[in-house]
Every structure is written in C-alpha cells, then in structure tokens.
Design goal:
mainly alpha, globular, binds zinc ion
C-alpha cells in the first residue's frame, strides 16, 4: 500500500516536473537549478496532498463536532489563503534556493579546514545513527526549538506585534495554523532551517519532519471538540490544549497564572510545557481571541483586519508600536 502510494507520488512528481517545471526553467534561463527545482516540485506536491487530506478529514469533523458556530464565514477563507501560500511551497522553495546551498558551501569550507561540522546522528554510534532513532531525535530537537521560538513570540514586544495576527482569529478553524505574518513566517522558517542543518538534518528528512508537524498543527486549530485524554494530552498538543493557548486570559497574557506570558506554547509535543511549567490542562473548549479586540468603557476595540493585505499592514504597524512598549 505505502509502496504503491510512494510510486504514484514519484510518477506524478516526474510528470509535473517534465511537463511544466522543466520547460519553464529552460525558458527562464535557470537550467543550472534543475535539480533544486525537482526537489521544489516535491515540496509543492506534498503541500497539495496535505491540503487534500486536511480538507477530507477535518472539514467533516468541523461540521460534526464543532466547538462553536462561526460568527464570520469569511474568516475561514482568509486563513485558507495563508495555508495555500505557506504550504504549496512558496516559502519552502525560497529557503531551499537560499539557505541549503549557503550551508553546503559553509560545510565544504569547514571540511577544507579539517573541521567536521556537528551531526546529532554521530552522538552515540550504534544508537543515534539508527534511522528511526535519528528521526525521533531530530523531531525532538526541532520541536524544542519551536517551543522556545513560540515563547519568544509572546515575550519579545515586536515579535508579539507580528504573532498577535495568529491569535486574533476569533473563529479558529482548520486553516488557522498558517495565519501568520509573512515577516514572522520568514524569520521562523530561516531559524528552523538553520537549526535543522546545524544538527545534520538532510533536506529530504526535513520535508518529512515539517510535514508531520504541520498536519498535527492543522488539527490543533480546527473547530472540533477533540482531546487526546489525560496521557495523550500530556504527550501531544491536542485541539483542546492548543485552544487554551488561544483563549483570552490564561492562554497568552502575562497575568495568567504566574508563568511568563501565558500557557501551552508547545507546537508538536506538550511535555515541553510540563517540563518548563507552562502547561494548563483546562477541561473546557474556550473561545479564542485577544483581549483588546473587545471594546471597553475606556478604549475602543483594536482592529486586526479581515483581509490578507490589511492584516499584513496592521501587523507591521503593531510591530513598530510594540517594539517601543514593554514586551508581553
Ligand atoms: Zn502563540
Ligand atoms: Zn495557534
């Protein structure tokens, strides 16, 4: 079954590359990058498969066991634009073209100097070089970095200015994971790619690592009443666990319950939150948003925009505004 799927995928990738990508590359005079473009085609196709699976699995679940009815039908469409932009390869291909060759060059130079770069795989010969162990180790290290980056997004003023766009979705849905400011997306992807390359992850493994994380992240944001039980929630981030991170108050405010800037920052594994004392296992399914989206007697509601470009522009303005304020 898996073999058939892999063969089918390879056939479609080869067809798409030969029929569309290759002629375009020749035409544009980029034939020296054909090998990279072939990998880029793979990223694109993986993104397409992800979108189809998510739609077929999560969309019926949102209709069957919703947390709440949406107050704005357009909200899901805007988030879908983000998902197409991020997952169909625009960012990943950019990274592939920019970072991988740069790191390859740096590695080559270090080799010439007689220095072999660090590789997690060689930590404990006989154990850490087994493919499955290596893969899990990479997954753990990258997810720990994701946790740290997410804490920074909440504690560094200008980063929160950008990340608050993600939290401003009051109708959280299956496409909301990618509702991220473009600048935030670039910084995040560059940091993660550099970490991955620094610990020895091959580009092909990186595709798989990113894909697994992204699929679970989509589930976490879906408008579904799902949790993984006591043990499961302590291991993996469930929709209920992540919904608490998006909840006004406990989720992402410093006054929460005494921890720095909120709770449940985990991206794939929730045990980082237990380890660093930022976990909160609420039993209910909360509404989402940011406190300043609700008007009070003393100030009007802050507008985060409903269309893609407005959201991007307002994000940049908040970045400048919050960089001058105390971080939160
Ligand atoms: Zn957050
Ligand atoms: Zn989120």
């Amino acid at each position: 079954m898996i073999d058939t799927l892999v063969n089918w995928f390879a056939t479609v990738q080869a067809w798409l590359f030969e029929a569309v990508v290759q002629p375009l590359m020749f035409h544009a005079g980029f034939s020296e990058y054909l090998e990279d473009a072939f990998d880029g085609t793979e990223w694109f196709l993986i993104g397409v498969c992800e979108l189809i699976v998510l739609f077929l699995v999560l969309r019926p679940l949102e209709a069957w066991i919703p947390v709440h009815a949406f107050s704005d039908k357009r909200a899901r469409w805007t988030d879908f634009i983000y998902t197409v932009l991020y997952r169909l390869g625009a960012f990943s291909v950019l990274l592939f073209f920019l970072i991988v060759p740069l790191v390859a060059k740096a590695t080559e130079l270090l080799h010439l100097e007689g220095i072999n770069p660090f590789n997690l795989e060689n930590l404990l010969p006989g154990i850490t070089d087994k493919p499955l162990v290596t893969f899990l180790l990479y997954l753990l290290v990258l997810d720990l970095c994701e946790y740290c980056y997410h804490r920074a997004q909440h504690n560094v003023g200008w980063l929160w200015g950008l990340h608050s766009l993600h939290h401003s979705q009051q109708n959280m849905n299956l496409w909301s994971d990618d509702r991220t400011h473009l600048l935030d997306g670039v910084i995040h992807d560059v940091v993660m790619a550099l970490v991955a390359l620094a610990i020895g992850v091959e580009p092909a493994q990186y595709v798989l690592l990113v894909s697994i994380t992204r699929m679970l992240q989509s589930l976490q944001h879906a408008n579904v009443r799902i949790h993984f039980g006591r043990l499961g929630d302590a291991l993996l981030v469930s929709p209920r666990f992540h919904r608490w991170h998006h909840a006004i108050g406990i989720g992402h405010e410093s006054k929460g319950r005494g921890t720095l800037g909120g709770h449940n920052f985990g991206v794939l594994f929730s045990f980082w939150d237990i380890l660093f004392r930022s976990a909160y296992f609420g039993q209910t399914f909360e509404h989402t948003g940011i406190r300043d989206q609700v008007a009070t007697a003393t100030r009007p509601a802050r507008d985060y925009g409903s269309g893609f470009w407005v959201q991007q522009w307002l994000g940049l303005k908040r970045m400048v505004e919050f960089s001058r304020k105390r971080s939160r």
